[in-house]
Amino acid sequence: MSVIHRTTLEPAKLELLTGWLPTRPWYRGGPQEPKLSKAGGFRLDDPEGEVGVEFMVVRDESGDTPVDYLVPLTYRAAPLDGAGTALVGTAEHGVLGRRWVYDACHDPVAVAELAALVEGRAEPQAQSVSHTPDREVSRALAGEGPVPAEFPAVEDTEEHTELTAPDGTVLRVLRTPHPAPDGAPQAEPGTAGHVTGAWDAPDGTRVQGLMVLLLTPPPAP
């Protein structure tokens, strides 16, 4: 299970994201610098214990209306081959040393664990507490699967990031999650699975909403 080190990270995660978020097509802020705070999230375990995987919800309050963003990140001890365009930045960890921080949608370890989460084979972990499952994260899958482990095609749109497997299955990462109106998130019609999570609203209340959708290709005629 995830081990959380109580130490420093320089620059801090939010500092790295302040420069990176405005470069994303799904960023909705204006020309001003983002004003970010952490609102919630969860972690996933790398079975090999080498890569840190975090699904972070950050809030930008630089505009007239706060906007929440889902930012999956991975933390590595060395550069990830072929993922230079997905690099968010580097930072010095007080215990682990130099960390390369990536957009996790481009990291095969994170994507495989996300697929395992949807399928029910991976257990979400608390964002800031070691060895503690996150009971606010839920998942669902229509049928028994399996869900592909590899989603090599990655496309950012103005709303989300789509990860596509060779068989056409898609994991859709909802980059601007919204609280479910009744507190009980429901997947969109036609989806084959989903992941929901919780975060703090601007008024301090705890809300839940969809974070990831699984879409399967239509059956061959």
Order of helices and strands: EHEEEEEHEEEEEEE
Q: How far is the N terminus from the C terminus?
A: 44 Å
**What's the mean pLDDT score?**
92
Number of strands: 13
Q: How large, in whole angstroms, is the Cα Rg?
A: 17 Å
- Hey, roughly how much beta strand do the residues contain? 35-45%
Apparent shape: globular
Distinct helical segment count: 2
Strand order, main sheet: write it out. Answer: 1-5-6-4-3-2-7
Low-confidence stretches: none
Q: How would you characterize the largest beta sheet?
A: 7 strands, antiparallel
Organism: Streptomyces griseoincarnatus
Pfam family, one: Mak_N_cap
Region (Disordered): 155-203
Keywords: ATP-binding, Kinase, Nucleotide-binding, Transferase
